[in-house]
TrEMBL record:
UniProt name for this protein: PhzF family phenazine biosynthesis protein
Region annotation (Disordered) ranges: 1-20, 221-246
Positions in coiled-coil regions: none
Sequence ranges of Basic and acidic residues compositional bias: 1-13, 229-246
InterPro entries: Phenazine_PhzF-like
Listed Gene3D superfamilies: Diaminopimelate Epimerase, Chain A, domain 1
Length: 246
């Protein structure tokens, strides 16, 4: 098994509407793939609305998140301050890794790299290192997620989607413990259309906090999440981002 040889049927990938009439119904937004593997494989689809004022209400934002069908959609409410709002198809989140990494990358690509983003949880520092975009958060900001270690990568890959049970599950096993390489799969199990999350920055941050070491996480069908803890208790989550033009 290579680093990214996993089973595509394990992960639900919401499809972006290809019918131009369907696209026209949605406010202007960008679609990205966040936490791509080397060469651009994998990555978790993200909807980005750069003009948050175009979708002003929580009800409207929740409806758009459902229509797009991605695991998260992020709205930029104040470009100068970096104020953002994050929605899944069923809940509003105070913090999430892949929307913040994706938005930070997009703003950098547009020539407006932010130093800080401000989701409801707090200030998130942003840095760039080559093709990796990093955001820094705290484990206390990660809500309602549980990690569970499995004996082997084979055991993680054999899990049904979703496994029996309730609540957000981040299933993981060491792929190479000495090198800090983890195989992981993520199951929101919250009753919406996201059966399995392709790449989950907040859960990666939580696992890094629990293990107390930098990690190289291989998740989904080819995604890669990098993490590194800091002495002040914050943890950076980073990865590659690609534009996903329908």
């Amino acid at each position: 098994m290579t680093d990214f040889d996993v089973h595509p049927e394990h992960v639900a990938h919401p499809e972006y509407p290809v019918n131009p009439a369907e696209r026209a119904k949605h406010p202007e937004h960008q679609v990205l793939r966040v936490f791509c593997g080397p060469g651009g494989s994998g990555g978790n689809a993200l909807g980005v609305v750069l003009d948050g004022a175009a979708v002003p209400g929580r009800t409207e934002r929740a409806a758009l998140a459902v229509e797009l069908g991605f695991s998260e959609t992020v709205f930029l409410d104040d470009a100068a301050r970096g104020t953002v709002d994050i929605h899944t198809p069923s809940v509003r989140l105070p913090f999430a890794g892949h929307p913040l990494v994706g938005l930070a990358w997009l703003l950098h690509d547009l020539g407006r790299p932010p130093r800080t983003l401000r989701p409801p949880a707090g200030e998130v520092a942003v840095t760039y290192d080559g093709e990796i975009t990093w955001v820094r958060g705290r484990a206390a900001w990660v809500t309602a997620r549980r990690t569970e270690r499995y004996a082997s990568v084979t055991d993680v890959d054999a899990l049904p989607a979703p496994p029996p049970g309730e609540g957000w599950l981040y299933a993981w096993a060491w792929q190479d413990e000495a090198a800090g390489v983890v195989r992981a799969r993520a199951f929101p199990r919250r009753g919406d259309a996201i059966v399995e999350d392709e790449a989950t920055g907040a859960a990666a941050l939580l696992l890094t906090h629990e293990l107390g070491r930098p990690l190289d996480i291989r998740q989904g069908t080819g995604s890669q999440i990098l993490t590194r803890p800091h002495p002040d208790g914050t943890i950076e989550v980073g990865g590659r981002v690609r534009a996903d033009t329908p």
